[in-house]
Amino acid sequence: xxxxxxxxxxxxxxLARRSTAPIYxxxxxxxxxxxxxxAQEKRLTARLAKDNARLxxxxxxxxxxxxxxxxxxxxxxxxxPRLIKSQRARLGLSRHxxxxxxxxxxxxxxxxxxxxxxxxxxxxxxxVAIRKLGKRTARERLRxxxxxxxxx
Length: 152
Prior knowledge:
Blueprint: H1 4-64, H2 71-76, H3 81-91, H4 95-102, H5 106-114, H6 121-130, H7 135-149
Helix pairs in contact: 1-7, 3-5, 4-5, 4-7
């Protein structure tokens, strides 16, 4: 003779499953649908993050690139120690930061401002190009250059 308690236990469990099945099955389908939707959202978020990183890198590359100037502009540009000093003051930059923006050393900027030397052709082109920059643009470009080089 089987154990009466075990039979009752299995019968109660069977009836409980049978009575809760109509409630449980739609919920199970809903949970599966939500899991699929979540997975799709995760894929979308990952793709958007990747696109965003690519766009930010592209933007930083564009910001870091020096503004273009024609050879004629460089040829006819007048560069004086006073002009370099006033340009640096207009942008509100230290000698070191201004030098980084131009692509030279801080000592070169000091020599230019004191009149001991004159900028070479490449630096002169950069100085002419920097004339077109505003304070905000110069600081943003400097930030990107510092991040790209990893130095302060």
